[in-house]
């Protein structure tokens, strides 16, 4: 018994040291930084010596200060599927990332659509009666979320909610809202996603299923204590960038200074767009074509965009 306890303590200490090493590597990394507009920054780092989570990782993030003027956050939407870059250009966005989950026709409603499903039937259309995202755009209901909006126990990708209005963005826990939250939230743009990774500075439990524990490309949104918004995409499924499991994504968002963070759609859907950059503005390495290049964007239903107010 004593030997087992000592082995357990040694393992725990080893894990703590690894986490400390990873946090130092991330915080002290020499990020490439570009100011997109005053108080809005695009940052990139590529760990190429397996020095983050013992893996290669390519991370792009956008930090939006609460003091940024002339821009606003918005939910992008199309009634037919488009890539993240196509939606961003349609809205004349400064930058953007893919949004939350939508069930495609022909997909199993219990599967995670972005990570496990590729639409095979009518890929230009969405089955709104089987959507797994509640989506409101410009005050109008787009997807009513008939499967899970009224269930007592929400699915893991329904645990968080983004509400965007002229004053900014908030991330909420769906579990803390009242039963009629769809009507009580006064925001022009509302999007559900999940799971929540951080809430009020605290790590939230991560499921032990394959969706959570396997490494994939990931997209997340977070908020810092000063009100800054973080949009993050980590590439995956390649030797150059392994991707992250949800525990690693949770730690990454925390180490970046987020007190609240929400997982968005991942896998082949993960993508980041920056206006004016090469490769039609696609700065991440989308994995839907199974190549490590900028051409592998998947068509998605919605996005989170930074758009000018002028």
How many strands in all? 17
Shape: globular
Helix residue percentage: 10-25%
The assigned structural class equals: alpha+beta
Poorly predicted ranges (pLDDT <50, ≥5 residues)? 104-131, 146-154
Element-by-element helix/strand order: HEEEEHEHEEEEHEEEHEEHEEE
* Count of alpha/pi helices: 6
Q: C-alpha Rg, in Å? A: 19 Å
Distance between the termini: 68 Å
Reported for the largest beta sheet, the result is: 8 strands, antiparallel
Would you mind describing this structure in some detail?
The chain is α+β, with helices and mostly antiparallel strands and 310 residues long. It contains six helices and 17 strands. The strands form three sheets. It has an eight-stranded antiparallel beta sheet, with helices on one face. Strand 8 (160-165) and strand 9 form a beta hairpin. It is globular, with a radius of gyration of 19 Å. Mean pLDDT is 82; it is low at 104-131 and 146-154.
Name the features.
310 residues, alpha+beta, 2 domains, 6 helices, 5-stranded antiparallel beta sheet
């Amino acid at each position: 018994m004593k030997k087992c306890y000592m082995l357990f303590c040694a393992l725990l200490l080893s894990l703590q040291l690894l986490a400390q090493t990873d946090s130092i590597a991330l915080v002290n990394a020499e990020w490439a930084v570009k100011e997109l507009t005053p108080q809005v920054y695009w940052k990139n780092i590529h760990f190429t010596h397996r020095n983050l989570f013992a893996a290669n990782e390519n991370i792009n993030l956008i930090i939006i200060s609460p003091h940024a003027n002339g821009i606003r956050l918005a939910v992008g939407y199309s009634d037919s599927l488009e890539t993240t870059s196509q939606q961003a250009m349609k809205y004349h966005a400064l930058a953007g990332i893919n949004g939350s989950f939508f069930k495609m026709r022909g997909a199993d409603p219990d599967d995670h659509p972005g990570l496990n499903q590729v639409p095979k039937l009518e890929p230009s259309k969405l089955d709104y009666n089987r959507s797994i995202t509640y989506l409101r755009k410009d005050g109008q209901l787009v997807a009513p979320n008939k499967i899970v909006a009224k269930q007592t126990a929400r699915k893991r990708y329904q645990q968080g909610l983004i509400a965007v209005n002229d004053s900014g963005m908030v991330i909420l826990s769906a579990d803390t809202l009242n039963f009629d939250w769809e009507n009580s939230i006064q925001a022009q743009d509302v999007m559900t996603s999940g799971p929540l990774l951080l809430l009020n500075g605290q790590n939230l439990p991560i499921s032990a299923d394959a969706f959570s524990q396997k490494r994939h490309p990931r997209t997340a949104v977070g908020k810092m204590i000063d009100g800054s918004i973080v949009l993050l995409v980590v590439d995956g499924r390649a030797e150059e960038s392994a991707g992250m499991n949800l525990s690693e994504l949770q730690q990454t968002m925390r180490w970046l200074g987020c007190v609240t963070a929400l997982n968005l759609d991942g896998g082949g859907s993960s993508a980041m767009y920056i206006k004016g950059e090469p490769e039609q503005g696609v700065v991440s390495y989308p994995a839907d074509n199974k190549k490590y290049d900028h051409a592998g964007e998947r068509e998605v239903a919605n996005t989170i965009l930074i758009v000018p107010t002028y």
